[in-house]
Amino acid sequence: MNQQGVELKVCGVVQGVGFRPFVHRLASECGFSGTVVNCGDGVVIRLTPPLFHFDRFLKGLMEDLPPLARITSLQEKKVNDFPPAVGFSILPSEKAGSAGTMVPPDVALCDECLQELLDPNDYRFLYPFINCTNCGPRFSILESIPYDRLKTSMKVFPMCERCEQEYHEVTDRRFHAQPNACRQCGPSLSWHDRQGCLLTCDDPIAEAVLALNQGKVVAICGLGGFHLAVDAASEESVTALRDRKGRKAKPLAVMVPDVDTARQLCLLSLSEEELLLSRQRPIVLLQKRQNNGLAPSLAPGIDLLGLMLPYTPFHHLLFRDTRGPRALVMTSGNRSNEPICTANADAVEKLSGIADNFLLHNRDIVTRLDDSVARVICDRPRMMRRSRGFVPEGVVVGQPLPEIISCGAELKNTFCLTRGNEAFVSQHIGDLSSHENLIFFEESVTHLQNVLETKPVAVVCDMHPDYLSSGFARVLGLPIYKVQHHHAHAVAVMVEHGLDDETYAVVLDGVGLGEDGTLWGGEVLQAGLTSYARLASLEQLLLPGGDMAAREPWRMGLAALWQAYGPEEMDKNMPPSLAAVPLYTRTVLTEMMAGRINCPLTSSCGRLFDAVAALLGLRHKCDYEGQAAMELETLARQAMRDGLGEMVKKEEQFSVEIYEEQDRLVIRSSSMIRALLKSLAKGQDPALLSMLFHRWLIASFRSIVEEVGKRLGKKKVVLSGGCLQNAVLLSGLCRELEQVGFVVFSGERVPVNDGGISLGQAVVGGMMLKKR
Ligand code: ZN
Ligand code: ZN
Ligand code: FE
After folding, report:
1. What DSSP state is assigned to residue 637?
2. What's the confidence (pLDDT) of residue 401?
3. How far does the centroid of ligand 3 lie from the alpha carbon of residue 440, in Å?
4. Does position 241 have pLDDT exceeding 50, yes or no?
5. Which ligand has its closest atom nearest to the C-alpha of 165?
6. Ligand located closest to 173 CA
7. Ligand 1 centroid vs 117 CA: distance in angstroms?
8. Which residues are registered as beta bridge partners of 287?
9. Quick check: bond before 465 cis, omega within 30?
10. Which DSSP state fits 463?
11. Strand 404-406 to strand 458-462: parallel, antiparallel, or no bridges (unpaired)?
12. How far is Cα 732 from Cα 577, in angstroms, rounded to an integer?
């Protein structure tokens, strides 16, 4: 060892994150001579002999990394003929080679920068774009690689002498911090009226706080896109925002200055506090406190509230004046069903009917990133929407895959690119049926391919031919692999947890096209990475009107009634909630079901939730996707909190019934529906009935897994699908399956909803291509 030099090739997130200064410090501490240099696909460290304590160096390299760095591979090579070196130095970057480096995601302001921001004696006191190597914008400002200031939207801001000095000083916290800037040389904020005309003022932040205090709607240009902000304590302002945006009931996210404020508004567990404070700063869904002083219409009908903490310097400045609002609605700055605005001119055009004022900045947002949304269930953080702060981080796959693009599903769309043994799930794109979102999808595909330098050799899409993502796949002119929707859901969770062997998968979802032409969505599969078998499902219901049924739960209510009692008896058993639907409308639907016109069959769990919500009288129509299910979950939790569960008599529980069909086991839901309606007719509390429905669902799927477990002998279960964003359902299933001896996995870093489909698709497709 002492006679030979060593060359270390390090790949991962190692550029633009303070990695080389870290290596410099470590090598100097060990007394090593040599060099470190950025190359196209990582960092190369050359150490000349003698190398006493080499192990200590390696250990430090792996364990004491700077906050944002991540090593995915480390190759060591012995070298005989290094020229002798004196001391350790950082060499200028070598020319870009092949891909392999990764751009870090955007990071919330770090504590050191925050201190400087608020320190009257600091050079960058109150400078709204302060950042350093450990924090600040990254992916959102990146045009192409290598990650270098000239390839970001900071290129129009040449550094002043002072910033330049910091940038080149190895020991400085801003060494090679690409977005480094100060008031002399960097971006700035400006204040505008509703038409976007500049209003001259000393302090745009102070103007914004004043406007918010007056109840106005302010459009704020952020990190990954615009926000629309109002005082979250003012019911009047929140209602005005909802009216102008045409967003009737969908919950609005709220930003608060610190954890203490969050604690006053919501109940916080330790893991939830950690998640709120994590450097990704997602929106965290939390249990609301009663009478927390915020506007009641923030999240009507739901016991959760989405909170996040400030993540850019100017967010912190918005809360600095304690006379300003202590909680701000910060909802996506877009028109309904369109992507979040990123360009100032576009935002002014699209949001001028909504916002009273604009707080703009002149650092361009290159890549659109919504706020990420997460929730802690069973003490684990789980992504609901994965975007800012997390993208473009890769998910490690067990083995290298060919370069693939997978196109995801239709709603909550994401796509995914593979490179080496990693899969890169894109940011949340949204509902592809909107033209603007489709453009966003195509732009993001091009951008991420550039950043990762991949050239897909095959494309993967859903089996559903009508998804626009499937249409996109067809025009690429690459070999196409089609993956069943729920198989993709299952594999996404398997990949996240490194499961290669066949496992059971309980996929509780909206609808996805099945192999038999019916719509699936309440399935138990035996899933491998390239194949699966359908072992069981929920009993099929009619889906009157197809997609319409998801927006109008009363349709599913009638379909469930039809299934439970048949056409002759259904009217006699109709609950008041459905009787309230005009007779004519009901008749049309009954005739559709009788003639099987536009009434496909579905085993969807999401649609069963809709049916139960309609029968219990929760709602006939949804204002947003999943509303009925979220309200049912809220009711079930309320019943549990009120201790209604303990008072339930045995005969009041909904009994689990399973029967065998030719190809699979089936959970009979019609008997549960009859029991539910009987209890409802007796005047039973809908909250209790919702809880019993959740319990029935959990017990049914536990029974199925136990049963197939006996036959096939496997012990691992993955839980996936959009319905498992429901905490009552997910935690109940986890608990009960573990009690009967199964090891249970569910989505954490990747959403269990359709946002995770692209990951499953990419791996199934990649493995199939490899096998061929
Ligand atoms: Zn910093
Ligand atoms: Zn400067
Ligand atoms: Fe799905």
Report:
1. H
2. 96
3. 21
4. yes
5. 2
6. 1
7. 10
8. 267, 304
9. no
10. S
11. parallel
12. 28
For residue range 184-225, what is the model confidence (pLDDT) as tens digits? 999 999 999 999 999 999 999 999 999 999 999 999 999 999
Q: What's this model's pTM, rounded to 2 decimal places?
A: 0.94
Q: What is the Å distance from ligand 2's center to 132 Cα?
A: 12
Q: Which residues contact 435 (CB under 8 A, 6 or more apart)?
A: none
| Distance in angstroms between the alpha carbons of the first and the last residue of the chain | 44
- Taking the centre of ligand 3 as the mean of its atom positions, its distance from the CA of residue 412, in whole angstroms, is 9
Q: Compute CA 610 distance to the chain's CA centroid, rounded to the nearest angstrom.
A: 23
Ligand nearest to the CA of residue 130, numbered in listed order: 1
Residue 180 CA to ligand 1 centre (angstroms): 10
Percent of the chain with pLDDT over 90: 87
Q: How far is the CA of 181 from the centre of ligand 1 (A)?
A: 12
Instruction: Kindly report, residue by residue over 64-116, the tens digit of the pLDDT.
Output: 999 888 898 899 998 887 777 788 988 877 655 444 567 789 999 999 999 99
- Look over the chain and give the mean of its residue pLDDT values, rounded to a whole number: 94
User: Does residue 251 carry a pLDDT above 80?
Assistant: yes
Place of tokens 């109840």: 215
Q: How high is the pLDDT of residue 101? A: 62
> Which pLDDT score is estimated for 91?
84
Residue 147 CA, ligand 1 centroid: distance in Å? 18
Other Cβ atoms within 10 Å of 245 Cβ, number = 22
Inform me whether the pLDDT recorded for 566 exceeds 60. Answer: yes
Distance 738 CA to ligand 1 centre (A): 43
Token pair, residue 611, equals: 């049916």
Six token digits for residue 664: 């699979």
CA of 20 to the centre of ligand 2 (A): 23
> Which ligand has the minimum distance to the alpha carbon of residue 174?
1
Ligand 1 geometric centre to CA of 10 (Å): 24
CA atoms within 13 A on the CB side of 675: 19
Interval 119-128 mean pLDDT: 98
Contact of 359 with 221, CB cutoff 8 Å: yes
User: From ligand 1's centre to the CA of 452, what distance in Å?
Assistant: 25
173, two tokens:
């916290």
Residue 460, strand partner residues: 406, 481
User: Tokens 């918010």 map to which residue?
Assistant: 212
Strands (E), 40-101: 42-48, 70-79, 88-90
Tokens found for residue 69: 């760095």
